[in-house]
Amino acid sequence: MNFNKIFSVCLLCLLAIKAEAKFIDVNSFQLENGLSVFVVENHRAPIVESRLFYKAGSLNDMTGKGGIAHLLEHMMFRGTKKIKDKEFNNIVEENGVKNNAYTTLDHTTYYEFMGIDKLDLMLALEADRMKNLKIDDEAFLKERDVVLQERKQRFETNPSSLFYENMNTLLWQDGKMANPVSGREKEIIGLTKEDAYEFYSRYYDVSNAILVLAGDITLNQAQEVVGKYFGKLKSNGFDVIEDNESIKKINAKLEMKLKGINEPRYVKYIRLDKGFLSKREMLALSILKEYLTGDDSAIMYDKLVYQDKKFLSVDVGGSYYPLYGGQIGISVVLLDKKMKIDEIEKIVDGALEWGYKNLDENKLEEIKNTYLSGAIYLADNVQNVAQFVGGMVMDGYSVDEIKNFDELIKDISVDDVKNVFDKIFRGELSFVIGYLEGQDNEI
Description:
5-stranded mixed beta sheet; 6-stranded mixed beta sheet; disordered N terminus; about 20% strand; about 450 residues; about 45% helix; globular; alpha+beta
């Protein structure tokens, strides 16, 4: 029985049903102060996810102030002029709301998952801390220490983190993309309350944010409740600063020995500078990564790990930020600890070309069906779809493009995927090759 064929037929039926409506039922509006709001209706249960994205992350850390975006994220839970320190978390817990936040390279997100009857309360709290944050000296020092300990713990529990950070720094040199989200230890120790206020005043502006509401709420209801709490906030007149930094081309190698590494690994980072990929090429790249090493049955993974038994694992991953650039990473964990870098490169390059040669229409359709099947289930989960919509907006996609995301994927051709392969793996791009192995304990 051909299960792949049956799966494809079932998926096409689901897509046909979806085609009667939009793939993701998202609509949007903008307040006069510049806040962009996106609403995804799902009335299956009286629940809602609220996600507030600030267009500022570690890429926006001031020079010498690495980690300030992440530290500010922590401070956002420590009180405002109206809400006393820690009272925010107490209110959230008492009302059965699940909340958290995270900082990335290009944005910081605060989210709450709740019953629809709690939305008024949570939006009131979010609007309050957007404008009225109060940074207490004692609370700041405590959170700065927490951030510092988080960084130390990450390197203690995952020693390879230091290797990857050094790879990234070498690739991006003095560019903003070299900034680790956590900040570096020396920078974190030097952060001040004034630094946090400066970042907050600059980037936590109502016109530099997007709000996504997904769940049991209509567009009209969203306009009313969001306008009620955010409509009265005034923008500071936020202007995007055009990033015109120029980073030198580099081809380099990095070899490190670290304690706690059991199996050596080879990594190659390829730099994708700002403006390198269009939105269509970004989607083609996502499909290419899925095709090469999306799971253990993917063509490159299967060949190198199962068929040829060259490596313990292999992965092609990475990300791209339209305003800043990105990178693609090829990572393998070695089976033969004596294998030389030149031999590894030859095997990896051969497998990439083999994958390129074997990509055809049938294989591409299979990959796109797998890709879309995950998107279908994502669209029905209010938490996941809120994150997805926010991410698409951050990447520059319009509401119509998000609504018709399935059509964007289905429109990607073999030529699209092969063209982006050519640009990345056959182009004269900057890259860093790294080799990491274990360090024997000293006696």
